[in-house]
Amino acid sequence: MLRKPGTTPGITTPAALKTLRQHGPETLSDLQFLENWTTRPRYTAASVLRASQIRRTNPDLMNDITASMRKRGK
User: Fold this and answer.
1) Does the residue 48 lie in any domain?
2) How far, in Å, CA of 60 to CA of 51, rounded?
3) End-to-end CA distance of the chain
4) Residue 71's pLDDT is what?
5) pLDDT confidence of 51, banded at 50, 70, 90?
6) Does 25 map to a domain?
7) Where are the alpha helices (DSSP H) in 24-73?
């Protein structure tokens, strides 16, 4: 799939983009998961565990992503 240079698939919030730049591509799947989780949470055991682990280790990131996604929804 073609995409613009410098863009990241599935990452839309400023907080997630900043984290991706700081910590590298190994964080991409977690950041995509968090953005999807804030808009369409799935309450499977694995999803709940993953979201809670990420939220516990970086609550500011989760709050920033949630706030950005809510602003877009309005």
Assistant:
1) yes
2) 13
3) 31
4) 85
5) very high
6) no
7) 28-39, 45-57, 59-73
Between residues 32 and 2, the one the model is more confident about: 32
In the predicted structure, residue 64 carries a pLDDT above the cut 60 = yes
**C-beta of residue 39 within 8 angstroms of C-beta of residue 69:** yes
Residue 57 burial by CB count (10 A; 0-12/13-18/19+): exposed, middle or buried?
A: exposed
Alpha carbon separation from 5 to 2, 24, 28, 54, 61 (Å, rounded): 9, 16, 16, 28, 25
Q: How many Å apart are CA 61 and CA 17, to the nearest integer?
A: 11
Is residue 53, in this structure, part of any structural domain at all? Answer: yes
Owning domain of residue 46: 30-73
